[in-house]
């Protein structure tokens, strides 16, 4: 039995553990296999969650609504009792708040009274980083650590990786992802990184659903991630719907692929649909998504006795409805970095 912890620490040998001390951890992990950030769509429930101790990489072609999906997931997390920090380095904080308000109400351009109510409801639930510009990797790491230490956040969203000044060097990219993973594990903080994917060459172009190999940059991005989620939009169908043309709704508007899932066995795809009035993704072609009830505090799923979810809205206001889908498959403290935050980087509530 190892019992001289102080001596081992001094010798730098405190990383060794007795196997018997791991039994309770294994039992707890088995009894609670998913402890992450639940998806807003019941199709993914019990299949994939954003892990609390790892980096989730979210990708897609430019213009395929990956930020829309990520913001929806973050807002759902805030409504479910998690504290969230959003760093959208390509959008100003006021634009992002307006975007989230539309998602919360399932309508766009909400009136001033609603914006005030939504802002009060969102206070202490979701924080927005007021920095729409390139950020150094040291600054980003410090910001993520501070979101946990100072605000108690459970989820940090970095949108997107292209806005982190890595000097175009793959080795810098590798070190940054490794540091993100270490921070996530040490602070029990879910970290999401949004990143672009290469547009394929050839006649099919973006008609092809991308795979994990299509991420721009080093293959270490995928290797270092605990989860990889890819969103693809059927651009031809979206254009036809926009023009009022008849479309085949048996085919989903989006394909969401779980390309890596370190903490659960599921890897596969689900089909999602574009909401008719808001920038939201929905479970089925009914395109239903329940607005957030700003008078309630938390969102709790109500299970249907025969599996899936009932059509009844949860207290947080999200529709928890299981819909059939042909593509579904069963199945020591780190010190702060020495680089101070830029004066232009601040968190607004």
Radius of gyration, Cα only, in angstroms?
Answer: 21 Å
Order of helices and strands: HHEEEHEHHEHEHEHEHEEEE
Q: Number of folding domains? A: 1
From the N-terminal CA to the C-terminal CA, the straight-line distance is 49 Å
Number of helices: 9
Q: How does this model look, in words?
A:
The chain is globular. The protein has one domain: P-loop containing nucleotide triphosphate hydrolases (Rossmann fold), CATH 3.40.50.300. The strands form two sheets. It has a ten-stranded mixed beta sheet with strand order 11-10-9-8-3-7-6-4-5-12. The N and C termini lie far apart (about 50 Å). The chain has helices spanning about 5-10, 25-30, 65-80, 95-105, 110-120, 135-150, 170-185, 220-225, 235-240, and strands at about 35-40, 50, 55-60, 85-90, 125-130, 155-160, 190-195, 225-235, 255-260, 270-275, 280, 345-349. Helix 7 (about 170-185) links the parallel strand 6 and strand 7 (about 190-195). It has nine helices and twelve strands. It is an alpha/beta fold and about 350 residues long.
């Amino acid at each position: 039995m190892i019992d001289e912890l102080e001596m081992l620490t001094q010798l730098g040998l405190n990383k060794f553990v007795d196997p018997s001390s791991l039994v309770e951890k294994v039992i707890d992990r088995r009894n609670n296999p998913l402890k992450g950030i639940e998806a807003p769509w019941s199709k993914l429930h019990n299949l994939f969650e954003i892990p609390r101790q790892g980096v989730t990489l979210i990708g897609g072609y430019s213009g395929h609504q990956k930020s829309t999906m990520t913001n929806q997931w973050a807002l759902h997390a805030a409504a479910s009792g998690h504290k969230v920090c959003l760093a959208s380095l390509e959008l100003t904080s006021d634009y992002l708040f307006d975007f989230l308000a539309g998602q919360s109400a399932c309508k766009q351009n909400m009136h001033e009274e609603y914006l005030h109510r939504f802002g009060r409801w969102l206070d202490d639930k979701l924080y927005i980083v007021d920095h729409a510009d390139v950020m150094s990797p040291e600054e980003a790491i410090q910001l993520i650590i501070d979101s946990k230490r100072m605000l108690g956040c459970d989820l940090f969203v970095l949108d997107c990786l292209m806005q982190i000044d890595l000097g175009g060097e793959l080795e810098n990219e590798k070190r940054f992802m490794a540091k993100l993973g270490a921070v996530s594990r040490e602070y029990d903080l879910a970290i999401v990184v949004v990143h672009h994917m290469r547009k394929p060459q050839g006649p099919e172009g973006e008609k092809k659903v991308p795979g994990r190999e299509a991420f721009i940059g080093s293959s270490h991005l995928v290797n270092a991630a605990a989860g990889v989620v890819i969103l693809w939009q059927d651009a031809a169908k979206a254009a036809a719907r926009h023009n009022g043309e008849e479309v085949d709704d048996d085919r989903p508007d989006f394909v969401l692929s779980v390309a890596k899932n370190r903490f659960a066995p599921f890897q596969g795809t689900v089909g999602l649909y574009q909401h008719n009035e808001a920038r939201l993704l929905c479970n089925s072609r009914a395109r239903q998504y329940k607005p957030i009830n700003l008078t309630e505090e938390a969102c709790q799923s109500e299970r249907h006795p025969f599996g899936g979810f009932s059509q009844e809205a949860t207290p947080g206001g999200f529709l928890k409805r299981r819909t059939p889908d042909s593509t579904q498959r069963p199945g020591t403290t780190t010190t702060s970095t020495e680089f101070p935050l830029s004066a232009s980087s601040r968190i607004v509530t």
